[in-house]
Request: fold
Amino acid sequence: ATPVQADFPQTTGSRHVGRRPRTARVALGRLGRWKSTASDDEDAVLDEYREKIKDVHVQIEAVIARRVDVKQEAHQATKRHHADLDNASKYGITKLAKAFLQVPDNLQRAASSVKQDELEGDKDLRQLNEGLVKMQKVVDGALRKFGVAEMEAEGQIFDPQKHEAMFAMAIPGKEPNTIFHVMEPGYMIHERTLRAAKVGVAKAA
Reply:
């Protein structure tokens, strides 16, 4: 009898040598595609995180900038508050002080109305005048405690912020716009004019 020979593929010189089984090739292909997909997903997640980090940095910068602005605004508000308090302290009595100027005005008129020869011949009048002078000093001291003081106008250059020109005339030896006569004294309250001085001003000939 003729022996039966099995039909096995040749291992030597055959095309099957070195090739993986089909199942293994499919599995490796799927693994490669899975790795590629996983890598793409990972890149997408990383990009998303990068964008979120950028957004957080922008928000942090905005918060820092706003903090600086708030700090500056608070500083300015504090300065304004202190300035308001200072102005209220200095100038809160402006209206009252201006009305009170009638007192030194009347005292000055009373003192100016008495002539020197009348004082010399009348003892009682001298005593009254001395009391008047003392009262002037008391009133002046009280005004100065609140920052109110009579301004020196005569001999100064005319300043419309401080002086009110009642008349002008040519005065030999006086420069134009120089105050040569004070009709009514002016007063300052700290750095502001409380009442303008009424003055006569020299003009060019």
The longest strand covers residues 163-170. The helical segments are 22-91, 94-100, 102-112, 116-121, 123-145. The beta strands are 148-150, 163-170, 179-184, 187-189, 192-195, 197-203.
